[in-house]
Amino acid sequence: MLATTIDALDISWRCRHTWMRASKNTGWCLTGCAIGDFGTIAYFQFMGIDWPVMAIMSLAILNGILTSIALETFILSRQMTLQLAFKTAIGMSLISMISMEAAMNLVDVMLTGGAILKWWVIPFMLVAGFLTPLPYNYWRLKKLGKSCH
With b meaning 16 or more CB within 10 Å and e meaning fewer, what string describes 52-72? Predict the structure, then answer.
């Protein structure tokens, strides 16, 4: 355990190129996640469906992950076969996507009191969704050399 912790700290956290790459990857993931997440919350909100907040947020997280995988598959399919693009998108880090989704939904609940989209809360949700997985995505690129783009 200690060796793993030391290994994680044994990388350079000052590599501008890796931060740029991690930011780009995180941005694409955020785009896909936000489409599914916001779409789900908006659907329940605009249709007046009264489900428990946790149920809506759980469904929003699932849909966010699925739309992120779909977007990544589409983007990657320009560089490789559709089957390989899908496998690569599925192989992306679920840790990154789940942390992104959890951060976005936590901010929504904290600021609005529920699963509610308001114009002023969306930027806060997006910033939280971007910043939360960014260090992990940087580490993943730096330590493991794993990226989907």
Answer: ebeebbbbbbebbbebbbebb
Distance CA 42, CA 111 (A): 16
**pLDDT tens digits, residue range 99-144?**
999 999 999 999 999 999 999 999 999 999 999 999 999 998 888 7
C-alpha dihedral, 81 to 86 to 87 to 93, nearest 10°? 140
| Helix or strand run (H / E) with residue 37 | helix 16-47
In a domain, 10, yes or no: no
Domain enclosing residue 44, as ranges: 16-144
Q: How far apart are CA 114 and CA 117, in angstroms?
A: 9
CA triplet 36, 81, 141: central angle to 5 degrees?
Answer: 65
For the chain, how many structural domains are there in total?
A: 1
Does residue 8 fall inside a structural domain?
Answer: no
Domain-embedded: residue 62: yes
CB-based contact 11:123 (threshold 8 Å):
no
11 is a domain residue: no
